[in-house]
């Protein structure tokens, strides 16, 4: 009220407003971390009742693709020592696509596969019976001393074989298949059509303690 | 040349009075999308690489568990530890933590809880399998091994 200076019409200089806003903008730009929630999904087996013995699952040795990783990160794939994972994904894929002893249902599945997959399918009676439930299982067993990185690498390779088969079945690339969210009915249908009859059977055994 | 000069006579200037508004709009966008990290990570985090990454639909279902060598080795030692929220916990506290996280979700979503395991690549399988064993005990079986993408060889 008693301000003498107030008489003069003063205007706040708004020219530097943009600069201030820029400064704030840059601050938020720098501090923003777009959280990446990507990863390899794994469903753990249900817990075991200590009073009951683990369920006996009868599987023929030929239906199990054994991958062992020791404390030095060396691999033992189907009884064969490996130092690296080169070519493992293709081996798993041909193991999964093998129809050694298909029953009627598996034969129907074989007939429903697209021609490109049918050409890859072999009929080796020493390998897995069929890719359906109980016909082909990938078993990954680690040691307590195995590095997490190696374990994830092997799991990643096993998943890749499955996703490649699923994707080829519905005629898209594996990257596209993995990006399907199942949010709408069309995507869900694609996902289901890829998986149908070929469940992801990756068994992760409890790591052993020897040599850790 | 004369033609050019004629055109130049019209003094065109871009009005910059709307510039602050545009900047403010951008600013608000980033302010809203920014999630300031509410927890300090106490363990080393060098996330391993993988190719078969999947993204989860609902972020609210994810709870994070950090596993790695403590950054403050003087206080916590050099053995890998587990961090939940902002404290280091032991393996036997995981069950309690999972139940707390589950209580935050709505009734219908409780069984879909997903644990995102952010483990350092140097960690051995021993601690990881201990964590997994505990998670199986409390029936939180959806696990997402956090990884960063890698271009194929």
Automatic annotation (TrEMBL), chain A:
Keyword annotations of the record: Cell membrane, Membrane, Protein transport, Transmembrane, Transmembrane helix, Transport
InterPro entries: ExbD (IPR003400)
Topological type in the membrane: Single-pass membrane protein; Single-pass type II membrane protein
GO BP field: protein transport
Keyword Protein transport part of the UniProt annotation: yes
Family indicated by similarity: Belongs to the ExbD/TolR family.
The name this protein goes by in its record: Biopolymer transporter ExbD
Lineage summary: Bacteria, Pseudomonadati, Bacteroidota, Cytophagia, Cytophagales
TrEMBL record, chain B:
Keyword Mitochondrion in annotation: no
Keyword check for RNA-binding: no
GO biological process, one term: protein transport
Keywords: Cell membrane, Membrane, Protein transport, Transmembrane, Transmembrane helix, Transport
InterPro entries assigned: ExbD
Pfam name, any one: ExbD
Membrane topology, as annotated: Single-pass membrane protein; Single-pass type II membrane protein
Molecular function per GO: transmembrane transporter activity
An annotated GO cellular component: plasma membrane
Compartment annotation: Cell membrane
Highest rank taxon of the organism: Bacteria
Family, as annotated: Belongs to the ExbD/TolR family.
Name this polypeptide is given: Biopolymer transporter ExbD
Taxonomic source organism: Litoribacter ruber
């Amino acid at each position: 009220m008693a301000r003498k200076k107030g008489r003069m019409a003063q205007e706040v200089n708004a020219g530097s407003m943009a600069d201030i806003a820029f400064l704030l903008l840059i601050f938020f730009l720098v501090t923003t971390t777009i959280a990446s929630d990507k990863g390899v999904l794994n469903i753990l087996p249900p817990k075991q009742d200590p009073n009951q013995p683990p369920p006996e699952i009868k599987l023929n040795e030929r239906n199990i693709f054994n991958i062992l990783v020791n404390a030095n990160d060396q691999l033992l794939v189907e009884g064969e020592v490996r130092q690296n994972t080169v070519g493992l994904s293709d081996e798993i894929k041909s193991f999964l696509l093998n129809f050694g002893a298909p029953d009627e249902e598996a034969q129907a599945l074989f007939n429903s596969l697209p021609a490109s997959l049918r050409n890859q399918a072999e009929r080796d009676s020493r390998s897995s019976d069929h890719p359906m439930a109980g016909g082909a299982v990938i078993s990954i067993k680690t040691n307590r001393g195995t590095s997490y990185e190696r374990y994830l690498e092997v799991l990643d390779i096993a998943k890749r074989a499955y996703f490649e088969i699923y994707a080829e079945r519905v005629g898209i690339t594996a990257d596209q298949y993995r990006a399907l969210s199942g949010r709408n009915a069309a995507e869900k249908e694609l996902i289901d059509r890829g998986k149908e009859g070929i469940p992801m059977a990756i068994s992760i055994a409890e790591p052993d303690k020897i040599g850790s | 040349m004369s033609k050019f000069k004629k055109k130049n006579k019209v003094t065109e200037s871009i009005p910059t009075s709307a510039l602050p508004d545009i900047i403010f709009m951008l600013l608000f966008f980033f302010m809203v999308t920014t999630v300031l990290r509410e927890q300090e990570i106490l363990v080393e985090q060098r996330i391993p690489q993988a190719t078969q990454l999947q993204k989860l639909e609902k972020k609210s279902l994810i709870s994070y568990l950090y596993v790695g060598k403590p950054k403050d080795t003087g206080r916590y030692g050099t053995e890998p530890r587990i961090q939940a929220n902002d404290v280091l916990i032991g393996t036997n506290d995981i069950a309690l933590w999972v139940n707390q996280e589950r209580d935050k979700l709505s009734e219908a979503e409780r069984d879909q809880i997903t644990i995102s395991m952010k483990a350092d690549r140097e960690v051995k399988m021993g601690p990881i399998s201990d964590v997994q064993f505990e998670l199986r005990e409390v029936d939180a079986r959806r696990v997402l091994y956090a990884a960063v993408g890698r271009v194929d060889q």
